[in-house]
Amino acid sequence: MKHRYLGNSGLKISEITYGNWLTHGSQVENKVADACVREALELGITTFDTADVYANTAAEKVLGKALKGQRREGLEILTKVYWPTGPRGHNDCGLSRKHIMESINGSLKRLRTDYVDVYQAHRYDVETPLWETMTALADVVKQGKALYIGVSEWTADQIREGHRLATEMGVQLISSQPQYSMLWRVIEGEVIPTCEQLGVSQIVWSPIAQGVLSGKYAPGAPLPEGSRATDKHGGAGMIARWMNDDILGRVQDLKPIASDLGLTMAQLAVAWVLHHPNVAAAIVGASRPGQMTENVKASGVTLTDDVLARIDEALGDVVVRDPGKTYEGMPKGRPC
Question: Percentage of the chain with pLDDT > 90?
Fold first, then answer.
């Protein structure tokens, strides 16, 4: 397992990061989740990403239990704040000082740790002054409850202003966590160039496009039993945008490219996002330990310019590149 520096900091994280978004506390049993975490640790993964909203705080609890007994100094634990938790009361979401301060305390308790390595604003809160948000996040760092701060799905302008305020307050904003894959490249036009200027790295989610880039969904074929596309608890909704025959057919055209490299299609997808120098890590989840074993093989893979060109040719115009999609996908008001 290779490790990369996160932003303009001295912190290194594993380039394959374990994420428990749609699995822990919801899709898989706790025993299976524990087994997946143990496998990740055996494979050299040291970085674990979660959020308070995942399974309405249950995912943090499962991860905290699974990591119990591990040497804390050898791990990098990341969590997030913004989306509604608990009973969804009028202050149970957003990036107000109240919600941030209450949420970090809850996350630390559930994760069974005194601090997180990176505390991330899970979305931009249009109803809270950015100065208030950044002041609260800076205080979390100064209280020793987080070492660094990051953001998720912020626009380039929001990242720039957040970074400016963080710097003024003496704390480091070092990471951005956007969706990024062969099919979804909206950060390439504005977010990545801005982050490169500021010394901010990407920790990308959904590098396999919710499993579509694994090639297991074929045009016109029945959905595989137990796959994310059949999950009525959230997985099917997230994957729906990719489930049309044009996209699925193009994805099948990636098979010979992966085969020539001795990779699975999922490994090719993860290696593709890791090829970008501004990407520090790819977040990969698992519903069974074997998935981690396979996906970790993408670590250290080098893709040539010829391979990258073949991938672009195969996918053609189904790739989404519009940088405006980041703003378009933002909540336009608090979701509680």
Answer: 83
Which residues make Cβ contacts (< 8 Å) with residue 231, sequence separation at least 6? 22, 27
In a domain, 336, yes or no: no
Q: Taking the model in full, what pTM does it have?
A: 0.94
Assign 24 a pLDDT band (cuts: 50, 70, 90).
Answer: low
State the pairing for strand pair 16-19/146-151: unpaired
Q: Is 9 exposed, middle or buried (0-12, 13-18, 19+ CB in 10 A)?
A: middle
Q: What domain range includes position 245?
A: 3-328
pLDDT reading at 64 higher than 70: yes
Cβ–Cβ under 8 Å, residues 14 and 46:
yes
CB atoms within 10 A of CB 314: 17
Residue 180 lies in a domain: yes
DSSP string, 50-105: --TTGGGGHHHHHHHHHTTTS-GGG-EEEEEE-S--TT--TTSSSS-HHHHHHHHH
Inter-residue contact 100 to 140 (CB < 8 Å): yes
Band of the pLDDT at 15, cuts 50, 70, 90?
very high
- Name the helix (H) or strand (E) containing 18: strand 16-19
CATH, residue 167: 3.20.20.100
CA angle 195, 150, 56 (to 5 degrees): 135
Catalytic positions are: 54
Q: Using the predicted structure, report yes or no on whether residue 230 has a pLDDT greater than 60.
A: no
Which of 4, 9, 2, 3 shows the shortest CA–CA distance to 174? 9
In angstroms, the CA 120 to CA 55 distance is: 17
334 part of a folded domain:
no
Distance CA 220, CA 236 (A): 17
Read off the pLDDT of each residue in 113-130 and give the average, rounded to a whole number.
98
β partners of residue 66: none
The DSSP symbol for 230 reads: G
pLDDT tens digits, 96-108: 999 999 999 999 9
Distance in angstroms (rounded) separating the CA atoms of residues 67 and 64: 5
Q: By the 8 A CB rule, do 202 and 280 touch?
A: yes
